[in-house]
Amino acid sequence: MSSSINIPLSKLPNFDPGKVPVLGVDSHLPAVAAEYLQPGALRKRFADLPVWVPEVLTEKRFSDRTPLHASVLVPIVMRERPTVLLTERTKHLSTHSGQIAFPGGKVDQDDADASATALREAREEIGLDPSLVDVLGLLPQYVTGTAFIITPVIALVQADFTMNPNSYEVADVFEVPLEFLMDPANHQRHAFEWEGVRREWFSMPYRDSRRQRFIWGATAGILRNFYRLLSA
């Protein structure tokens, strides 16, 4: 087995996921229509789930540590055009440093369930008041290469929320239109080989009024599964 199996991509020498060549773009797949991205339609979808198949469930493993259960909140802000609230992790964190992520973290023994973990972590990370959050449901667990078993919690967030980001964990908070993320024309495929180990991932690069946001890895994989649910 290659020694690189224990090296996260972000820790490889001079690795920049944004510079890895694009193998393909899924513009042949239909976008989710805007009317199905509104709060009422999202509530209906989770109240009566269709038969669907998630596309990405397990990344190639590159950590020998004991798997850890975690939850992330996928916060859909109820604006006229709904958005997804995302964070940029600080660069000094031990895992997924500097990457774009959902608010979330490891399960605490006092958490009642996956939703409780996601809501607690969102409050700790960005100061999101749980009373402004309406949990719709869960996506299937997503296992990262760093051995996190993540439960994504899909939720609606009232647009008048305020934030107080934890500066130790969060470098930035921003929003991306849900319509953009649910259009496969914005979904890129990548692959990278290091010492005989091939890793593949999606990316969804988005430029806002400030700069380019390179959404990739687990965050993009979870969003891709969300697309598969909404397009089923």
How would you describe this structure to a colleague?
The chain is of the alpha+beta class and 232 residues long. It has one domain: Nucleoside Triphosphate Pyrophosphohydrolase. Helix content is 18%, strand content 30%. It is built from 4 helices and 13 strands. It has helices spanning 39-47, 114-126, 178-181, 217-231; strands spanning 22-25, 68-77, 83-89, 100-101, 104-106, 133-138, 142-143, 148-157, 170-177, 188-194, 197-203, 206-207, 212-213. Strands 2, 3, 4, 5, 6, 7, 8 and 9 form an 8-stranded mixed sheet that branches. It has a 3-stranded antiparallel sheet with strand order 1-10-11. The longest helix is centred in the C-terminal third of the chain and has 15 residues, at 217-231. It is globular. The termini are far apart.
Write the layout of secondary structure elements.
Blueprint: E1 22-25, H1 39-47, E2 68-77, E3 83-89, E4 100-101, E5 104-106, H2 114-126, E6 133-138, E7 142-143, E8 148-157, E9 170-177, H3 178-181, E10 188-194, E11 197-203, E12 206-207, E13 212-213, H4 217-231
Cα distance spanning the termini = 39 Å
> What is the helix content?
10-25%
User: How many DSSP-defined strands?
Assistant: 13
CATH topology name, in short, is Nucleoside Triphosphate Pyrophosphohydrolase
What is the architecture at the second tier of CATH?
Answer: Alpha-Beta Complex
- Which CATH class applies here? Alpha Beta
User: Could you report the average pLDDT, rounded to the nearest whole number?
Assistant: 89
Q: Indicate the structural class.
A: alpha+beta
Which consecutive residue ranges, at least 5 long each, have pLDDT under 50?
Answer: 1-7, 93-97
Note the overall shape.
globular
Most strands sheet: 8 strands, mixed
